[in-house]
Amino acid sequence: MIEIKTVLILGAGSSYGYKFPLGFELCRLIYQIATSLTNEKELKELNTSKEELVAFYQGFRYSGVVSIDEFLSARTEFIELGKKLIAKVLLPFENEMDLFPPFDDSISEDWYRYLLERMMVDNLEDFSKNKISIITFNYDRSLEQFLYRALMHRFKASSEEISQQLKQINIIHPHGQLGLLPWQNESGDNSFTVHYMGGPTIANIIAASKGIKIIHEANEDTHEFQKAHELINSADRVFILGFGYHKDNLRRLQLRKRIQYQMMLGTVLNMKKEEVGQIIFDSNSVLGQDHLINTSILEFFKEVQRLQ
After folding, report:
1. Among the residues of 91-141, which ranges form H helices?
2. What residues does each domain of the chain span?
3. CATH of region 1-19+101-177+212-308
């Protein structure tokens, strides 16, 4: 069990080991799908037209951007279409087979399994006592699904029993997520529910797109960011993992100067010296050279700071 109050802040790199695309690859896949959409029925179901689609992918290609968020923030007329294309690309990557490989080395960076082991308890009813909260900037629900499925089989428990425990662990998506998993939906409105491995059906694409926020929509006044600030400020340890350190996200997280008893560390795997310097500048030196570690997430936990 994790007994030290800990917050994990996750970026795209945290899901990369489970075969989710990083920013530039996501751009390529969105462009590829946009240029291949020709079926009139599907265009109608997506509430778009061939003319809008062509304008989107030509603008996207020639804008010189490095992320879909950057493009949609500038070309707000394409936000609805862009979110649907993001969902259409990402939903097929939500695959349980990539979360639970058959005891081989197909996942070299399986830090979900490590996290579960550090959180494990003898009795299911004690799982929610883990003092850990997660702030993820990813749209995918892979970590939630991993914990849900693993606990179900570990304890041979019902969906309701597992969901009761997981709902007490803070997992926040400031930029939204690809819809609600069935056990997360308490409203009874199934129009926001998207099953894991449900695939990119029209219904799932529309439901998932409603849950997505791009950078300029997810400001620090939203409920998700307010909760994130509360968790960060009350934590003993804050670990920033697989994160891109976009200056807007750093600003919205409102990272404070470390108070005496708080530890704040982040991974900067394979980043250049200039990139690390920019992170220090953008964080107003809240994150310093000694707090940014060139290592993978799994190695960070094994070699730098063990979860306990």
Report:
1. 96-99, 111-119
2. 1-19+101-177+212-308, 23-92
3. 3.40.50
